[in-house]
Amino acid sequence: MVESTIAVMTIFMIIAAIIALETTDLLSAVISVGAIGVAVSICFLLVGAPDIAITQMVVEVLSLIILIRATIRHDLTTINGDREFFGLTVTLAFLFLFFLFGLRAFWSLPGFGNPVISQFPEAPANRYISSGLSETGATNIVTAVILDYRGYDTLGEATVLFTAIWGALAIMRVFSRKKRGNKNEDK
Amino acid sequence: MRINEETGMSLIVKTVSRWLKGFVFLFGMYLTFYGHLTPGGGFSGGVVIACTFVLLTLAFGKERALGKLGKTLSSVLDCSGALLFLLIALAGIFISGVFFENFIEKNYPGKVFHLFSAGIIPLCNIAIAIKVGASLFMVFIILAVRRVIEVDGKRKLISTEFFDMPERKVK
């Protein structure tokens, strides 16, 4: 049941991705990207990861709103023009090559519901699952891992977000403070 | 109807948003505060809180949302959330000697499934929610609320909200 639903969702995602690439209307492309995100969220929910599903869904909604407001509202862009034959051939050849590698990788994966950590008892993830509740006191094991065992990683992630946002804010500022001060002096 | 009341969307959207905005904000706070007990956490709770202000911006116009969470306040909240997270991590060094040590849970273990349990984890969730909510709202404002202004004879799309832009030549 779960595997067949995930297969259907995967086909839906592939179709939506093709639509997002091939359509000439920018609004349709953005909406197709949003449909991919919703399907990914449903897949996360089906395999038993509600934390990631919630995060994926809300981030998808927010990014969809930002994409629509930021790209669609002011400049309606349509993309047209034919693809070159050589470029298309090379793209298809590389896609086939990556498909072969991906198939090989998927065959080497363990079965569904039978994770790798069950084959290695000394893996750290086993300790997180067995003694996470008694060591951290958090019943949500995901939060226990990301904020207690791997808190350093979360700090790095927060730093990346902080730096990226302040860098973007500094770039989006068109007039520097010094320049604006000079203009005020001119007046 | 005055021009100021015409900003934002239609009356239906405004009424529904007026009813829903509190519940959306409450859901974000629930995700944050109960992140160590149920699915959720600081990041998703912060995004939902940011979505509340995005809803206000879309439904009522940017003046209303920026009146509730202005540019100075959101900058201060962003920085203070990041600093609070770092301070909690550093407090582990000074109290227990290990970076990111869960010193509250070590010294005062809480009861399982209670709100005040798991030591520093709820505090970290709150800090991350403040930081993520404020910073994503800033990103939304700076990317989505833009104006066309004329710079040296060319029409340019720029974000005028976050930094005190001169109000000249605004179309």
Write up this protein.
The complex is a heterodimer of chains A (187) and B (171). Chain A has 187 residues and is mainly alpha-helical. Chain A has a domain of 81 residues. In chain A, 76% of the residues lie in helices and 0% in strands. Chain A is globular and about 60 Å long. The N and C termini of chain A lie far apart (72 Å). The mean pLDDT of chain A is 82. In chain B, 61% of the residues lie in helices and 6% in strands. A two-stranded antiparallel sheet of chain B has the order 1-2. Classes of the chains: A mainly alpha (187), B mainly alpha (171). Chains A and B meet through helix 3, helix 6 and helix 7 of A and helix 2, helix 4, helix 6 and strand 2 of B.
Largest sheet of chain B: 2 strands, antiparallel
Sketch the topology of chain B as an H/E string, one letter per element. Answer: HHHHHHEE
Structurally, the number of domains of chain B stands at: 1
What is the H-and-E element order of chain A? HHHHHHHH
Structural class of chain B: mainly alpha
- Share of β-strand residues of chain B: 5-15%
Brief overview, please?
The complex is a heterodimer of chains A (187) and B (171). With 187 residues, chain A is mainly alpha-helical.
SSE layout:
The complex is a heterodimer of chains A (187) and B (171).
Chain A: H1 2-22, H2 26-46, H3 50-72, H4 85-107, H5 124-136, H6 141-149, H7 151-172, H8 177-186
Helix pairs in contact in A: 1-2, 2-3, 5-6, 6-7
Chain B: H1 11-33, H2 42-60, H3 62-68, H4 71-95, H5 103-107, H6 120-144, E1 147-151, E2 154-158
Antiparallel strand pairs in B: 1-2
Helix pairs in contact in B: 1-2, 2-3, 2-6, 4-6
Please name the defining characteristics of this protein:
heterodimer, A: 187 residues, mainly alpha, globular, B: 171 residues, two-stranded antiparallel ribbon, 61% helix, disordered C terminus
